[in-house]
């Protein structure tokens, strides 16, 4: 269960420019807030997920071999595996395509959940291209950033500090469950985003000028339930065809593309 897990952070202080009463830095409308997911928009988890798949499959084959049960393993290559993940192919089907059946599939799935957040796997994560520039550009244009992730909160905070991105966020909302991000339950994301928005309202959050940026159905469902604009990114774990099924407000290739579009649109409005 997600509790009250917001970690408030001192934001960067920028020297204000001359502006009208209803405008923020850079001439942009005030009270603009971007709630952003972590895995996908900011962090590329592709290598970690594939490594986890390979290790879990290898361990499953070895476990049953010890019981004199031979599994005709069919290891999927990384390109095929990632295409299946982006197409929202269930882990059960991926296991079957890899040669598993019956109780072997559940053994494999359990190992995936147990392995995916181990330190030796986490170090394979990397920052998506252009993320540092995009987040900084949003902030210097007066747009508030709030992280909403199903990652364990302490883990997400630590990684942001390591990447020197921590100071760009006004608040971080995460979970206390190590496996929540991999399981990616829409109901859990919906509850967490609702909590984040409710707690940010007293600090100037305006739902009419709020965006939720993510790369999965959980992010889009959560945004729509909260009544804010939903932005889907194809750089994460879902492809455009899957994302279109959930009717996002807009679809972009990555966070940088969204950032440039948002700042440009708001500058036109402010002009």
From TrEMBL:
Query: Which Gene3D superfamilies has this protein been placed in?
Result: HAD superfamily/HAD-like, Putative phosphatase, domain 2
Q: Transport: is it a keyword of this entry?
A: no
Keywords attached to this Swiss-Prot or TrEMBL record, sorted alphabetically, are: Hydrolase
**What GO molecular function annotations does the UniProt record carry, in alphabetical order?**
phosphoglycolate phosphatase activity
One GO cellular component assignment for this chain's record is: cytosol
What InterPro entries is this protein classified in? HAD-like_hydrolase_sf (IPR050155), HAD-like_sf (IPR036412), HAD_2 (IPR041492), HAD_sf (IPR023214), PGP-like_dom2 (IPR023198)
What top-level branch of life does the organism fall under? Bacteria
| GO process terms (BP) | DNA repair
What PANTHER family does the database record attribute to this sequence?
Answer: PHOSPHOGLYCOLATE PHOSPHATASE
- Name by which UniProt lists this protein: HAD family hydrolase
Species per Swiss-Prot/TrEMBL record: Merismopedia glauca CCAP 1448/3
Q: What is the lineage of its organism?
A: Bacteria, Bacillati, Cyanobacteriota, Cyanophyceae, Synechococcales
């Amino acid at each position: 269960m997600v509790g009250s897990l917001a970690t408030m952070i001192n934001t960067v202080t920028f020297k204000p420019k001359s502006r009208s009463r209803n405008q923020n830095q850079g001439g942009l409308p005030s009270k603009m807030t971007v709630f952003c997911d972590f895995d996908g928009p900011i962090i590329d988890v592709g290598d970690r997920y594939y490594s986890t798949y390979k290790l879990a499959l290898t361990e499953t084959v070895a476990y049953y071999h010890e019981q004199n049960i031979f599994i005709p393993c069919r290891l999927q290559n990384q390109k095929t595996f990632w295409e299946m993940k982006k197409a929202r192919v269930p882990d059960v089907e991926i296991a079957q395509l890899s040669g598993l059946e019956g109780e072997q599939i559940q053994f494999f799935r359990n190992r995936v959940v147990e392995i995916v957040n181990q330190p030796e796997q986490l170090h394979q994560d990397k920052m998506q291209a252009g993320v540092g520039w995009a987040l900084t550009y949003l902030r210097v244009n007066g747009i508030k950033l709030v992280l909403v992730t199903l990652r364990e909160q302490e883990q997400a905070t630590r990684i942001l500090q390591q990447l020197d991105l921590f100071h760009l966020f006004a608040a971080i909302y995460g979970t206390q469950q190590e496996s929540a991000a991999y399981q990616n339950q829409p109901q859990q994301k919906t509850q967490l985003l609702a909590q984040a928005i409710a707690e940010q309202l007293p600090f100037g959050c305006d739902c009419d000028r709020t965006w939720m940026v993510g790369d999965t159905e959980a992010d889009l469902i959560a945004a729509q339930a909260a009544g804010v604009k939903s932005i889907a990114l194809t750089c994460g774990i879902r492809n455009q065809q899957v994302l279109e099924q959930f009717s996002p407000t807009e679809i972009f290739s990555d966070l940088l593309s969204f950032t440039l579009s948002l700042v440009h649109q708001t500058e036109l409005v402010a002009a």
